[in-house]
Design brief:
Elements (H helix, E strand, L loop, with lengths): L2 H10 L5 E6 L11 E6 L3 H14 L3 E4 L5 E3 L4 E7 L6 E4 L2 E5 L4 H10 L2 E2 L11 H7 L2 E2 L2 E2 H4 E7 L5 E5 H4 L8 H4 L2 E8 L1 E2 L2 H18 L6 E4 L9 H7 L6 E2 L2 E3 L6 E4 L5 H19 L8 E3 L3
Parallel strand pairs: 2-5, 3-5, 4-19
Antiparallel strand pairs: 1-2, 6-7, 7-13, 8-14, 9-10, 11-12, 11-13, 15-18, 16-17, 17-18
Helix pairs in contact: 1-2
The site of flavin-adenine dinucleotide (FAD) has 34 residues, from strand 3, helix 4, strand 9, helix 7 and strand 13.
Length: 301
């Protein structure tokens, strides 16, 4: 712990915005993961000074949104975690929705629906933030963020704000240029179109019901653990490898949906990671396909 760094952080932020040794299990939907050395919840205007302090004190930093695609190691994160939950403004102008990075997809989709805008229904049930959804090019039921993103504002690691157009974001299947450039997504503008409010709400409800029926939402998880391999479905490969219900400690391949690894009972991050690796090995041994995790691993295991 660097006391000067902590003091400087406290000068930039307000009471309650900085914590030390913050358990990351509180901030990830897997409900696993050890403590972050430093943890902050800045407002938009405070991010830049926070990042510049990290540079000055050579403290590594990372950003999280809703922690719904993250497995943090049991020994936690060395350095600073910046959580964007306080940056959640959403505004609408015509058929463009502007949302800050910490706004939840559910809240953004609801707001769009209230304005009678269509195009974002697919994202309403994805439990991530706008920032995380840009990073991952989140998608479901035939929709993807790349279909609706017009542009995004990012903070570069040198501390400059810049606007990236859709092609500049390099969105592909569950990927973008954000992580490799160490950008922080600050906000995104989404291009939707005029629709019928009731139909939009109806479609969102329909998709929500499909999720509840198919996915083990009653357990902590990070959604689909693996990317869809070309020509296959991860869940089917896992099921056909005889891994339905396979368990390592408290972590389990969901019995309801084999594409989900769930935290069935107080699993450690190490157990979850071991289970993921076992699944990869078993599926590869059986079908010659190496599943690639969609979930991001971070911190020390
Ligand atoms: C039950 C369940 C269902 C799911 N269903 C789907 C689905 O249908 N489709 C789908 O695509 N995903 C799904 N997911 C996965 C997840 O919700 C998405 O990947 C989502 O986009 C992640 O957003 P997040 O805010 O939680 O990101 P986090 O998990 O917080 O972060 C993900 C990555 O993005 C980085 N990051 C986050 N915010 C920023 C930012 N502002 N700037 C820079 N980097 C950032 C983090 O460092 C990390 O590397 C599901 C997850 C769960 C738990």
């Amino acid at each position: 712990m660097d006391n000067n760094f902590i003091e400087q952080l406290q000068n930039v932020l307000e009471e309650g915005q900085v914590s030390l040794q913050e358990p990351m299990e509180r901030h990830t939907t897997f409900r696993a993961g050890g403590p972050a050395d430093y943890f902050v919840r800045p407002k938009r205007r405070q991010i830049q000074p926070v990042v510049s302090l990290c540079r000055q004190y050579q403290v590594p930093w990372m950003v999280i949104g809703n922690g719904s695609n993250l497995l943090v190691g049991d020994k936690g994160v060395r350095g600073l975690v910046i959580e964007l939950g306080r940056m959640a403004g959403i505004s609408v102008e015509g058929d463009v929705v502007q949302a800050e990075a910490g706004a939840l997809l559910s809240a953004t989709a609801r707001r769009a629906a209230e304005e009678g805008l269509t195009g974002m229904e697919f994202a309403a049930g994805i439990p991530g933030s706008i920032g995380g959804a840009v990073v991952m090019n989140a998608g479901a039921y035939g929709g993807e963020m790349c279909h609706i993103i017009k542009e995004a504002t990012v903070l570069t690691k040198e501390g400059e704000e810049k606007s990236l157009s859709l092609p500049e974001l390099e969105l592909g299947y569950r990927k973008s240029c954000i992580l490799k450039n160490q950008y922080i997504v600050l906000e995104a503008r989404l291009q939707l179109s005029a629709g019928d409010k009731e139909t939009v709400f109806q479609r969102m409800a329909e998709l929500r019901d499909r999720r509840t029926e198919k996915q083990p939402l009653e357990y902590p998880s990070a959604g689909s653990t693996f990317k869809r391999p070309e020509g296959y479905f991860a869940g089917k490969l896992i099921q056909d490898s005889g891994l339905r219900g396979y368990q390592v400690g408290g972590a389990q391949v969901s019995e309801k949906h084999c594409g989900f690894v769930i935290n069935k009972e107080k699993a450690t991050a190490a157990e979850i990671r071991q289970l993921i690796s076992d699944v990869q090995d078993r599926v590869e041994g059986q079908f010659g396909v190496r599943l690639e995790p969609e979930v991001k691993f971070t911190g020390e295991f």
